[in-house]
Amino acid sequence: MMSTPSAVSPEKIQPLDFEKPLIALQKQIEALATAQNNSEGISNQLQTLQQQAESLRQEVYGNLLPAQRLQIARHPQRPNTLEVIQALSPDCWIELHGDRAGADDRAIVGGIIEFEGQPMMVVGTQKGRGMKENLVHNFGMANPEGYRKALRLFEHANKFNMPILTLIDTPGAYPGIEGEQHAIGHAIALNIREMARMNVPIFSVVMGEASSGGALGIGVANHIYMLEHAQYTVISPEGCASILWRSASFATQAAEALKITAQDLTTFGICDAIIPEPQGGSHYDTASAFEAIAKQLKIGLATFKDYSAEALKNQRYEKYRSIGAFTEK
Amino acid sequence: MSLKDWFAQRKENTQAEKQLDAEGMNRVADEQYAKLWHQCFSCNTNLPKKDLEDNLDVCPVCGYHNRIGAYQRIAQLTDTFVEWDAGMTATDPLLFTDTEPYVKRIADAQRKSKLNDAVITGLGAINEQPIALAVMDFAYMGGSMGSVVGEKITRAIEQAIALNVPVCVVTASGGARMQEGMFSLMQMVKTSAALARLHDAGLLYLTLLTEPTFGGVTASYGTLGDIIIAEEGARIGFAGRRVIEQTIHQKLPADFQTAGYLQKYGQVDRVLKRSEIKTEMGLLLRLHNTSSGKLAHSQAYQQLGLTVPDTVLQAEIALHKQPALAHNH
Ligand SMILES: [Zn+2]
What we know:
By secondary structure, chain A is an alpha/beta fold. Chain A has helices spanning 20-33, 40-62, 66-73, 81-88, 131-137, 144-159, 177-181, 184-196, 212-216, 237-245, 251-257, 262-267, 286-303, 309-321, and strands at 93-95, 108-115, 118-125, 164-170, 202-211, 223-227, 231-233, 273-275, 326-328. The longest helix of chain A is centred in the N-terminal third of the chain and has 23 residues, at 40-62. Chain B is of the alpha/beta class. Chain B has 2 domains: 3-54, no CATH class; 70-305, 2-enoyl-CoA Hydratase, Chain A, domain 1, CATH 3.90.226. A 7-stranded mixed sheet of chain B has the order 3-5-6-7-8-9-10, with helices on both faces. A two-stranded antiparallel ribbon of chain B has the order 1-2. In chain B, helix 6 (147-163) runs parallel beside helix 7. Chain B is globular and about 70 Å long. The model of chain B is unreliable at 325-329 (pLDDT under 50). The interface between A and B is large, with 56 and 62 residues. Strand 9 of chain A pairs antiparallel with strand 4 of chain B, so a sheet runs across the interface. The structure holds zinc ion (ZN). Zinc ion (ZN) binds next to loops of chain B.
């Protein structure tokens, strides 16, 4: 049914611009190490270079700018929804298709998994691996039909008392003519309202980029978790820059100003926990990235295990009720 | 006023002015002329402002609906109105600066619009029927939805549940307030979750979509109405026209995202002229209040300074005569 996750070998990783000095240094070290010259001079030189590499690594990854994190979040080799599903439930994945009204929007995938013995409904936006898959999944940009399929699956989960997990990685809903004709705004609005009414625990994991209503349409949860380099924003930094700065070239400034990192959103009480990533991002070590996601999901399930339906709805209501910044005269 | 009447009156006015000129008295100075006259954006007719105002700010010649402010809308829709949370203002949770600081934009918007933020909420009466109202105002930062808009609308919905009255939101908004980042996006959830409670309480929710209604407002409370009315001439959508054109690289039809276009695609129940809205809303309230049997609590009438109807008093007395139900210790 599903493709096996592509385990990216380290030498095949496409480096980002800001990683290039580090890669260059790494290559120098490798060349020196394979030179088979055991002279003391070479050995000392190797040691110095390794120290330099280590401090450069600390400098690069320890002080990532929001725009650099965004590059990691959008890395083409970053694990995607179907790969996370495969890792969370290697033996059970029943994908469910269609909105029962004429379409199966593959930008959103969903189905039933069994996680640590617990049946769960998983719904997520799917970014493909490579152009061919991306065309199938429309780069993770859903149409109204995708949100209606998601709602159908949420209702199914609600009926059969399955906790819901949503995996979010999308540049936003697809801005097209048919989407407007088929009421994309209403499809998202209805999902938001209905997710607020669910009797089962809902967990949302922001895996890469999560943008605007397109993310929110599957994103109302009891707990929101974000991968360390994931970003959640009201509008893409490029879109924000082109409106407020009147040029998309100010995207770096916009990414900074919008405060969209997992760290910022934890401070604001929007993100409930940050899921740590391997140094440089999940694509450097997918196995440990999946393990960290599983670990957080276990904590989440345990947290809400004894909540009644009413308590779950109230907790969800209060979570969002308290978000806002205003004063009163 | 019919077109014929209007022309007749205009002729009278013009003659009166000519007479003033002839007598050499109080010739209307140019700037005063500009203050008293308005050129229609649509048909270019020069109209005395008074005539426009008398016609609900709809051009008597071509029917063009000019944008109106929140207080003006409230005056047109209701017989009495008590404002709630009038003193609520925005803070700057992100310390946001684009080409100028958000705090400066707030100050400018308040000065120019004479409003504290982009929505006015309160309790109103249409034909002595209480209704909680939230009316957006495009003049304040394009009606953008930030924390104040989200909080005031949520409180209005919660108050409506407490008073057992229907809710109407009148939208006019370009979408989310980018300067409040994720705080802004989360208002979509806060308001929609409150609407979920209103829905469960079985109370009527009406939305009146006016020019323009876009983005996060469309994808949350804007399109969740049990009955959705669009004002004639309003443009309504999720993604902006320009964004869609840039994405799909094709020209969109001229009537794309107009009220009529939305009705054709099944998204709004009624497209009404401004002059028809109050009457129809009053009728909708009466029909739904009658069939649901829901009575506003006496406090709603008291807040509005209206006589509490006998039916309401009798129902409340009946309730208090059953101590076992009211106070079950
Ligand atoms: Zn006109």
